[in-house]
Design brief:
45% of the residues lie in helices and 22% in strands. By secondary structure, it is α+β, with helices and mostly antiparallel strands. Strands 1-2-3 form a 3-stranded antiparallel sheet, with no helix packed on it. A 3-stranded mixed sheet has the order 5-4-6. Strand 4 and strand 5 form a beta hairpin.
C-alpha cells in the first residue's frame, strides 16, 4: 500500500478490525519510510450491477445517485443522513443478493418507497410523486389515501 504522505510503497499493518457491520475491514497502517499512520479499508469485490432505465438504457448502479434522490425527498425533514445511508446500504445489499445482475429501475424505486414509508411519510410521498410521475391531483390523492388506509 503506497503511503499517502510520502508515496513510499511499503507499510506495515498496526491494527485491523471489522468495519461497516462486518462488511469491510479497517486497517491502521504505518509507513516504513516516514512513520506516519493512515487508514485503509478492505472490502469484498462485488459484481457490478446494471440498472435498466424506463427508456431501456442501461447504466451502472450508483449508490450516490440513490442517496441523492432520497436526500431530495427528505429535504427540510428530520430524517438523519445516517438513516438514509443505512437504507441505501440495505437496498444495495438486497440487489447484490439477487441472482440478477441487471435490475429494472422500477424495482429499485419500489424498494426505496418501501423503506421511506417506514421512516417518514412526507418523504415517502415526495419520492413517490417523482417516481410514479403523478399526472394530476387525483393520482396524488389516490396515493395519499392508500397511505392513510395502511395506518
Amino acid at each position: 500500500m503506497k503511503c499517502p504522505f510520502c508515496a513510499h510503497p511499503e507499510s506495515k499493518v498496526v491494527d485491523s478490525r471489522p468495519a461497516d457491520e462486518g462488511s469491510s475491514i479497517r486497517r491502521r497502517r504505518e509507513c516504513l519510510a516516514c512513520h506516519k499512520r493512515f487508514t485503509t479499508y478492505e472490502t469484498m469485490e462485488s459484481l457490478p450491477l446494471v440498472v435498466i432505465k424506463r427508456d431501456g438504457r442501461r447504466q451502472a448502479f450508483d449508490k450516490n445517485k440513490l442517496m441523492g434522490s432520497m436526500l431530495k425527498s427528505c429535504e427540510k425533514r428530520s430524517v438523519p443522513t445516517d438513516t438514509l445511508e443505512r437504507i441505501a446500504d440495505e437496498i444495495e445489499q438486497a440487489l447484490q443478493n439477487e441472482l440478477m445482475r441487471e435490475i429494472p429501475s422500477t424495482q429499485i424505486g419500489e424498494l426505496v418507497m418501501e423503506k421511506l414509508r417506514d421512516v417518514d411519510e412526507v418523504s415517502y410521498v415526495r419520492f413517490a410523486s417523482v417516481y410514479r410521475q403523478f399526472k394530476d391531483i387525483n393520482t396524488f390523492m389516490d396515493e395519499l389515501n392508500k397511505l392513510l388506509k395502511e395506518r
